[in-house]
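Final report, closing paragraph on structural work. Over the funding period we assembled a curated collection of sequence-structure pairs, and we close with a single example.
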Amino acid sequence: MQKNKKKANLTPLFLILPVVIWLSFFLIAPYGVMFDLSLHDSDDKSFSTYANPIYANYEKFISQPPYPTVLLNSIIYAGISTFIVILICYPFAYFAARGKWGKYILFVVFIPYLAPYLVRIFSWRVILGRSGIVNQFLMFTGITDAPLSWILFSKVSLVIGMVYLFLPVMTIPVYLSLKRIDKFLIEASQDLGAGVWRTFRYVIFPLSKPGLLVGFLLTFVPLTLEFLTPALLGGTDTGLLMGDVIFTYFTTGQNKPVAASISYVMMAATVILMFMVIRSAGIQKVFGGQGRN
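Its predicted structure, as stored:
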C-alpha cells in the first residue's frame, strides 16, 4: 500500500521531468550563456575578459548614442502600428463576437496567415511597388499620372507591413474577451435607457479591456524588436530600429556583448510590462470564466 502511494507521489515528477529538461537545455541555459556574454568586454573579440565595470555594456546602451535614439524610434513605430491595429481589430472583433457568422469571418481572415511569413511580406512589396495594385489604381482613377516611388521602402510601407502581420495577434484576445461578455448585461443597460454609445462606454469597453491589454502586450513588444519587416519593407528614411542593431551586432558588427546586453534590457522591460498588464487586466478574465451567448 505504501509502495503504491510512493509511486503515486512520484508520478507527477516523472511527468514534468521531460519539460524541465527541455526548458533547462533550450531556454534557461541559452539565457544564462547570453547573460554571461553581456558582461564581457566588448573590445575583446575572444570574449575571455569581463568588462570593467561589469555593467559597462548595459551602461553604454542606456546612456551612449545612438542607442536611446534607436530605442525611441522603435517605440514610436511600434506604438503607431499597435494603435492602428487596435482601430482595425476592435470593431472587427466586436462584430465577429456578436454576429451570427463570427467564427466563419475569423476563419476567412486567418486564411492569409497560413502562408509563410516571407511570402506575406513579399506580397506587400508586389502590391506597393511601382507596377503594383496601389499605383495602378491611382493612375487608373487619375489621382496620379505616374507611379509613386515613395510608397514602397518607406515609413508608410513599414507601418503597413507591421500592422498587417499583427492583426490576428490583436484580434484573438479581443475577440475572446468580447465573446465572454454576458449579453444580458448589454440588454440590461439598454433597458435602463442607455444608448449605443453609453452601453459601449460603460459596459462593453470596460469588460473587454483585459483582452485589449493582452493584445497590446502581444503586439507592441514584438513590434519593438521587429527586424525582418523593416529589412524588407523599410527604407533609408525609417532609421535604425532595435532589431537592426541587435542583428548587426550579433553578425557583421561582431559586438556580441553589447547585443546581448541590449537583448537582456529589452527582455527585462518586456517582463515588467507583462506583469503590469497581468496585474491591471486580470488575464484570467480573458481565458477563463463563463459567458452567456
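Residues 67-118+166-287 form a domain with the MetI-like fold fold (CATH 1.10.3720.10). Residues 23 and 29 are 8 Å apart (CA to CA). We thank the funder for supporting this effort.
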